[in-house]
Every structure is written in structure tokens, then in C-alpha cells.
Write a structure and sequence with these properties.
Blueprint (H helix, E strand, L loop, with lengths): L1 H45 L9 H22 L15 H32 L13 H4 L1 H18 L18 H22 L1 H4 L2 H15 L3 H15 L7 H11 L6 H14 L2 H13 L5 H17 L2 H18 L4 H11 L2 H4 L4 H9 L5 H7 L1 H22 L9 H26 L5 H19 L5 H34 L2 H12 L3 H18 L2 H16 L8 H15 L7 H10 L3 H8 L3 H13 L2 H15 L1
Helix pairs in contact: 1-2, 1-21, 1-22, 2-5, 2-22, 3-5, 8-9, 9-22, 10-22, 11-14, 11-17, 11-21, 11-22, 12-13, 12-20, 13-14, 13-15, 13-19, 13-20, 14-15, 14-27, 15-27, 15-28, 17-25, 18-30, 19-29, 20-21, 22-25, 23-25, 24-25, 24-26, 25-26, 26-29
Amino acid sequence: MEGQNAPLRSIFLNLESGLASFLRTVAVTLLSGIVVVIAWQVLSRYIPGLTIPRWTEEVSLILMVWLSLLGSALAVRRAEHLAMDLVVRQFTPAVQRWVFRVVWLSVVAFGLYLIFYGAELASKTMTQTFSATKLPIGLMYWSIPVGGGFMGLYGLVNLARRPEVRDLEGAATTPPRNRLLQATLLVMGLGLLAGGVGLLGTDVVFGPVGVLLGTFVLALALGVPIAFGLGIASLLAVLSLDRPLPPLIVAQRMANGVNSTPLLAIPFFILAGQLMSAGGIAQRLVDASRVLVGPIRGGLAMVNVVASMLFGGASGSAVGDVSANGSILIPMMKRKGYDADFSVGVTVASSTQGLIIPPSHNAVIYSLAAGGVSIGALFLGGYLPGILIGLFLMAASYAIAVRRNYPSEPRPPRPESVRMLLEAIPGLSVGVIIVGGIAFGFFTATEAAAIGTIVALLVGAFVHRELSLSRLWDALVAAVRTISVVVFLIATASAFAWLMAYLRIPSTIADGLLAFSDNRIVLLLTINLMLIVLGAIMDMAPLILILTPVLLPIVTGPIIGMSEVHFGIMLLMNLGLGLTTPPVGTALFVGCAIGGIRIEQASRAMLVLWPALLAALLLVTFFPFTVEALPNLVERLAGG
């Protein structure tokens, strides 16, 4: 019987693979279209005789929304949406199989919601038009039912395959089942419930607020992709209200969340980082770092930190930093006699600079979540904190190098050193163009990111001549994966955040925290501790979207008096720590995979590096000038 079904199975697999290739090609084409359209907008501004087109941002927005929905379907197919499977892995294999079935059924159910209510939303907005192009707004929103249909389809495909299809590359480094971890998770769960009752009250916890937060936490624990967990929790909360809102409201709020012009900067920042990784820029930055700090004791560790500082200042991605620099430096450090755990640890720890030193797409996400904080000010405010992280890590690395007798790295001969420094300049120009263009008002954030992307493309293809067509295609595909996951997450998190505001959760939590203490230092330490704990168990982007509307009114209030820019950098630093810690530290996972070591080994090495990161965090938290000095200086220069 099984042999008779083999031809049908083969036909199905070929059709499914062909469909995925088609969707991938469409998504890459959409991303390329966005780059071309925004590049034309910039050229029209600065080439005499050309009129600045008013239609470019509207067309780019339509392309981006379609890209995010179709790309999200592909991410469902490959199980690439952000998820937390730590709790699930504490179950027996038999229970895990049933949990994975529930996960994919949840994805299918939300896909069906997007089909029916997305179609209703698109139909209702077909009579509304964009101001410049006069295209119907519904044209953009038809991506919701189409994307939802493909998500549901791939959810069913994964359900029909073995339920463990969600086992991703990082699964091998995920902590195995153990009693201590199980007990810790139980205590954390009970503490979360008790804290919710204490802050919000019993009536609130077991009402619509409890449905919203409880469903999300349960979905998170079961390993449901975070974006889908946010959407499902929002939908169930809407249905549980005493005066139910129409279910369409969730789709509307998702649409409003991505119908934002500043959001267009995110695809460019992500694509620029991918192009830099594929185009040989990372190797040039490593070479330049060898010239600058190689001769110091523990020189390759110093090189690792400085290279991360330079690469982060151009790509804005911690995971991209670990992937690009780690692939070069971890094997090199091991060959030179550095312990594998330290080689991985310093690579992972230094990658957090990429989240702070601009450009950073996470800073753009915070700007949107905070209601439009200046992206230029956030970028400038990240320089000194990022450099502080590097200096503290270099000091810690030097101390470890002396203790373990690690060697220094001889500086190359002067002609070669000069060549290495000069070859690094084109790659560094990407970050300079982006940040300088925004800070001094030459470009919008989206335009600056587009120009930076084109420069990264030209440098990799024509200066270093390492960005071949195959590498370019791989970079575009990798960028599509990341962009679609991030933008779809922003959409569902926008619906979730709107419902939190509707249910007055942020103000209730703020009242509870202020009732706990009215001491500025105690409140800041409490917030930092909460952010570090949450960052250790959940990914960065959803936490930014969920926590910003909750905490921003507290920290900018009269007791703490922190500026929005200062809090943004503090938030990014806290959550960046989570990328370096188990159980869900994605940068740590990638570093362990490159170094060929277990998480426990890397974590032991991190014990001597985390204090350096914490010291930089506390310095930034309590001394505002570390963040605000540079934005204030540039503002005075620009004003003068």
C-alpha cells in the first residue's frame, strides 16, 4: 500500500517544492522592487531637473506588506518564525508530538482567520485610495487573506509530516530535559501568576486581561510561533469582552501596524547586513581590527571585540555579527591556542554592540512602538553605549588573556597594515552614510537605509568583487526570511498592544510598580532586572513591541524622568543581554554551532563576560549623558 502511494507522494512533494520556489521568487522580486523604487526617490531629490515622485513610498509600502505576508508563509513552511520550545522539551516525546500537532493546528486556525476577515477588510477598503497613486488601499490588504491562505496550507503540510518538523538547527543546542529546569519553570510560572494577581487583581486576571495575557503565555510555553500567539491571544480577548468587539478589529489593527512609512527602513537595514556578510566586508573589518589592536595581549580577543564594533556599526545585527565575524574569528582563535569556550563567549558577548551602535533595525522597531521617537537621535545615542560595551569587554578579555596566557597577534608589516585599513573604509562607509544622512537631515531613515544598501551592494560586487550573483541571490533570500518574520510580528504585536491599551493594562502595571516603590534607583534596578529576565526567555523584537507601551510612561514620568531616547538605548542593551543567555539566546546558539561546543560550555565562559556587559548597562542606566551627549551635540551643530 505504501508503495502504491509513493508516486502520489512524489508528485505532491514536487508541487509543494515548486510552489515554494515560486513564492520565494515573488518575494525576492518584491524586495528588489522596494530597493529600486526608494532609490529612484532619492535620486529624484538630488539630480537637477527631476521631480520628486510622490508615489514611491505608497508603492513601496504595498510591496513590503505583500512581501511580509508571502514571506511569512514561507517561514511557516520552514518553521522559521520566532518561537520558544524550552518548556515543550521538558515533556516526554509522546507528549511533545501532541503539542507540536496543537502548534500547527493553531497556525492553521489563525491562517483561516486571516483568510476570512482579511478578505472582509480588503473588500471594505477597496473604495479608499492612497493620496498620490490613487490606488485602492484594499490592494495592499488583499495580501492578508492570500498570505493567510498559504500560512494555513503550510501549517497543514507540517501537520501531515512528522510533528517534530519544528526541530530547527538550534534544537541540538537547546537544553535537554532536566529536573532542575523543570522546577525552575514551575516556580517562574507560579511567580508570574502571583505577580499578575498582585499587580492587576483577581478580577482583572480572570477576565479579558487574563484571557489576553494568559493565552499568550500558554501559546509561548507550548511553542506556538510568537507572532501567531500574539494574534490568537488578541482574537480570543476580543471575543471574551463583556461588550464584544467585532473579530475584524484584530485584522484592522494588524493592518494599521504595518501601514507605516518609517517601517520601510527595516527591510533595507536587514538587507544591508546580509549584503555585507556576503560581500567580503566582514573579512576586511577583521583585518583592520588586527592592525588596530592585534599586538595587545589576547590580541585576537581584542580583534573580535573591535571587529564586532565596526561590523555592528554597519549591519546592526547581533546574530549577523556572530555569523559573519564568528565564522572567521572562532576557528582562527582556536588555531592560535585560545580555548573554544572563550572564543565563542567573546564573539557572542561582543555581538551585542551591533544592537546599540547604529544602524539598528531594532531601534527602528522601538521608534515605532514608542510613537515616533527620532530615529536619528536613537542612532546617535547608541554610539557611546556601544563603545562602552566594547571597552568593558576588552578589559575583561585582557584580564582573561593574562590569566590564561593567551598570545598577542603580531601587527602585519606597515604596507600591508595600510592596505588593510584602506580596504575597510568602503564597508564602514555604509554606516556613515546611513547615520550621517539621517542625523544631518540629508535623507529620511528609509532613504538613508536604501542608499546604504546600494553602497553595500556596490562595495561587495565591484570593490571587493566577492558578491557574485549566487551570493547576491542567497543574501536576498536570507533577507526575505528575516524581513517577513519581523514585519509579520510587528503586525500581530500591534493588535496585541492596542488591546493592552484598550484594557488599560499599561496604566495598571504602572500603578502597581509605583505602589511597590517611589524610589528612582529601586525602580530602575527593578525594571532592568525584569528586562534581563524576560530577555532570557523571549526574543528581542516582540519584547520591544510589547514592553515599550507598558514601561515608557513609567520611565518618562516625574519619578524617573528618563528621556525616550535614553530609555530606548537602555531597553536595547537589556534585551541584547538575552541574546547571549540560555535558554533562547539566538546569538549564543549561532556561536555554539560555529564553535562546535555545547551551550553549557559557552555559558561558563560567559560568566566572566556578563559582568562587563552589566557594568556598561548600569553606567548607561544611571548616567544619561552617555546616551544624550552626542545627539545634543549634533543637534547644536545642525542648528548652528
